[in-house]
Amino acid sequence: MNESLTLHPDGRTSLRMRRRLPHPPEKVWRAITEPSHLAAWFPAEVTFDGDRIGYGFGPDGRVTHREPPRLFAHTWGEDHLRWELEPDEGGGTLLTLTHTFSDRYGAASFAAGWHTCLIALLARLDGRSPAPGPPETGRLHEDYVHILGLDAATCDGGTVRVERQLVRPAGHVWRHLDGDLAAVGEPPPAPFTVPAVPAGPVTRAEPGRLLQYGTPGGSVRWELGEGTGHGARLVLTCTGDPATLPAWRSRAAALAAELAAEG
Predict the structure, then answer these.
(1) What is the CATH code of the structural domain delimited by 151-261?
(2) Whole-number Å distance between alpha carbons of 15 and 111
(3) pLDDT digits 0-9 by tens, 229-251
(4) Where do the Activator of Hsp90 ATPase homologue 1/2-like C-terminal domain residues begin and end (predicted)?
């Protein structure tokens, strides 16, 4: 596997991606450090002013390491990007990208984005145009959820918790779940339930954001918040019955797959 996650003691996460490129390190170095080349594949418009980097939107960054043609590292807001180049067999380059950030569950979004960028980088190095048409980012995102182990559920003190980055905005997810049919005092719409957990009446409903209902042993709460990229972050909790963990994990996975499969 060419992608992995490392969780650091301070709570930050590093995503590492490795690619073999059939081009020498000197050529790859120019492609990852010169704005005219970066414009063909990097996800933002890059400008340099000494060690300061502008990205065209959001916070600026600064260069932390520059050792041509071996190591280029820089910040982007609170994130840190490290590009390592090693000579590879046949005159090529082994490129290792390490992206360090604070949002572990956003790692699949980052990985899908960088995967697409690295394909465009290779096209630039080859002297050809990237393949036409938008990438299937939804399916790619879900592949990385599984590759990086971001599809787990936890149980702490009898509370089951599933956190999942989704590929559609919160309003879209809410409508997909028939959330507009939810009403306090009434049964929750079926997509918010699983057969293993008898659903009581809705106790709280905030359109596009939150739905909560009672169960015989506790409650179920669906929250849709701001996530990484363009999609919502789902936090699903069920109190009172740890045995429901597999059911809620499967329900979140099914929802994510449904959203990713949409055109």
Answers:
(1) 3.30.530.20
(2) 8
(3) 889 999 999 999 999 999 999 99
(4) 23-123
Matching CATH number, 3-146, of 3.30.1160.10, 3.50.50.60, 3.90.1150.10, 3.30.530.20: 3.30.530.20
* Tokens, residue 129: 């145009």
C-alpha Rg value of the chain to the nearest Å: 22
Strand partners, 218: 215
User: CA-to-CA distance for 85 and 95, rounded, in angstroms?
Assistant: 5
Cβ atoms of 176 and 189 within 8 Å: the answer is no
165-219 pLDDT, tens digit each: 999 999 999 999 999 999 999 999 999 999 999 999 999 999 999 999 999 999 9
Q: How many other C-beta atoms can be found within 10 angstroms of the C-beta atom of residue 120?
A: 17
Q: Which residues pair with 18 in a beta bridge?
A: 96
Contact 227, 106 (CB under 8 A): yes
- Segments making up each domain of the chain, as ranges: 3-146, 151-261
Instruction: Please tell me whether residue 199 adopts helix, strand or coil conformation.
Output: coil
Same fold, 3-146 and 151-261: yes
Nearby residues of 84 by Cβ (< 8 Å), 6 or more positions away: 70, 71, 95, 96, 97, 98
pLDDT tens digits, 16-43:
999 999 999 999 999 999 999 999 999 9
